[in-house]
Specification:
alpha/beta, Nucleotidyltransferase, domain 5, 3 domains, 5-stranded mixed sheet, 9 helices, 5 strands, SAP domain-containing protein, Mrs1/Cce1, crossed form four-way junction DNA binding, flap-structured DNA binding
Length: about 240
Amino acid sequence: MFLFKRSFSSECLKKYTVPQLKSVAILSGVASSGNKPEIIDRLSHHFTTTSTPTRSVLSFDLGYRNLAYCHLDHEANVLDWAKIDLDLPSFHPSVVAPIIREFIDQNVIKNLKTVDKVLVEQQRARTGGAHAVLENTLRVNCVEAILWCGLYEATESIQRDIQMMPIPRQSVDRAWQLELDAIVAENPARFLKIKQGYYQKKQASALLVQKWLDTNTTVQCNQEFKTIIGLVQMGKIHQRIY
């Protein structure tokens, strides 16, 4: 872990190796691809650019049966959370658009009135670099595109200039990789027959968040939200857009 002051010079970065610089970039939320000069340029811009402190962030985990969002403040308190089944009868844009708009009106716009940043999980175009594009990928990409349109429409309607950006899942995975590895190591029986890959990471991520909620570490969540999360996980309640 390296700590830099905003008054630093890019010259101080040149003494670090590429793997070290990539580690700093990942932890700083900066793209880690490219050669050493490119990474140094990105880090220099990141650490020297003056920005207004972020008070809260609204993030989206995309899906059409499991569309989730979470509103966190700067102290990592959960201000709002939900996992929504859009219950789409069709994936034609003429059907998806009004349902997404209703979702934004019911759940999202109240959060947009106070957040400083919005993060949306960026969807992939293909799985594993394959030539074929799976139907599920097309469906989620449709939801993603219309959600972005709805977010811009909503921010314009409330006359707020909010920084909104797509976040690749791989960047999030890398940021929490050590914690995810620790979860797998702590639960050997559960992961014994699960091969490394997407499904294992999904299971480990769920356990990691559950650990945060149980121990009130990393994020803080009041009992009301914990109860709702528990009921959703047990399938006793289903959040839908009506």
